Amino acid sequence: EKGTYDHFMLKEIDEQPIVIRNIIQKYQHEDGSTRLDADIRAAMQQADRIYVIAAGTSYHAGLVGKQLLEQVANKPTEVHIASEFLYNMPLLSQNPLFVFISQSGETADSRGVLVDVKKKGHRTLTITNVPGSTLSREADFTLHTFAGPEIAVASTKAYTAQMAVLTLLAVDTAYAAGRTLDFDPIQELGIAANAMEALCNQKDEFEKIARDYLSVTRNAFFIGRASDYYVALEGALKLKEISYIQAEGFAGGELKHGTIALIEDGTPVIALATNEHVNLSIRGNVQEVVSRGAAAVIISMEGLDQEGDAVVLPRVHESIAPLVSVIPTQLIAYYAALHRGCDVDKPRNLAKSVTVE
Ligand code: M6R
Q: Coiled coil: which residue ranges (predicted)?
C-alpha cells in the first residue's frame, strides 16, 4: 500500500534507511560477528573466483559488490551482464562460484546462465528479494535482501539492499579467511543508513535541482570515477527509465574520448565526486564540460566539498559511499519524471520483472 505517498517509488526511496538497518540486524549477531549459512561461507572460501551475473540495476549493484569482494574479502571477482554471458563466456577459473543478483529472482536472462552453469557442475548463489523465486529455488544457496516488496518498476530499495548484503558477504568472507580490516564495514553501513535518512529529509533540494536542470532538457549526463562511475551508470538508468530523458553515465576520463562532443550550452551534467583519490580528476572533468557550456550539478561529500557544489553528502566510508550517493540521483530522477508528467511507477514499455530472454 502507498499510504500517504503519491507513488510507490517515493515510498520505497524513503524506506531505504530502515531496510539497511534491518539487513544489519538479520545478518549480524549481537557480538558483532556475521550470521551467514555455514554452507555459503564454505562456498565462498572454496571459490577461487566469483562470477557475478545480473541485469540492469542489479548489475550496477554487482559492480559495487565486485569492489567490496576484492577490497574487503580479497576475492577476485568479475561482473557480467546476464544477457551477454552465454554468448561471450570468459575463461573460467578452477573453482568458480556464480553469484546471481536479482530483485525479482525471475529474470530470464539470469536464469539462462544459471541453468547453463549448473549443468556444467558449478556452484551457484542467488542474492534476491524474493526467496521463493525461480533463481532462488534453482541455485545451491540464497541470500535474502529483506527489502520488502518493491512495486515501482524503477528499482531503488532493492539496489541499496543488494549492496548492503554484498557488504555483509564480503565481511563474512574476510573474517572467515582470518583477514583483519582497518575499518568496520557493518558499522559503516549503519552510518550510511543515517546519511540516507538525512538525504530523504532534504527532498525540496532535489526537487529544485530536477526543476532547474531537467524539466525541459532532451539529454543529460552523469559522470564519476571509481565507484562514483558505477553510481553514474545507475543514476542515468533511473533517469532514463522514468523520465524518458536520454541519459548516459560515463567514466569521467572517457569524456575526452568522444562524449564531450555532445556537450552544448546548458547540457546538464551531474557529477559524482565522493571518492577522495579521484576528487581532483573528476573536478577537472567538470571544468572541461563547464567550459563548453554544460550546466554542472556536483554531488560531493563532507570533507571533499568545494564552494558551489549542489549537494554535499554526509561523510561515509568510501567503500559504501554508493549506498548514499545514489539517493540524490533517485530523488532527482523521481522529481524530473514528475515534472515532465510521466507515469513514475509504471514507465512505458517496461515490466517489473523481465521473464523473456
Ligand atoms: O529483478 P531483477 O533485479 O533481476 O531485474 C533486473 C532489471 O530488469 C532491473 O534492475 C531493471 O533494470 C530496473 N527496472 C531498473 O530500475
A: none
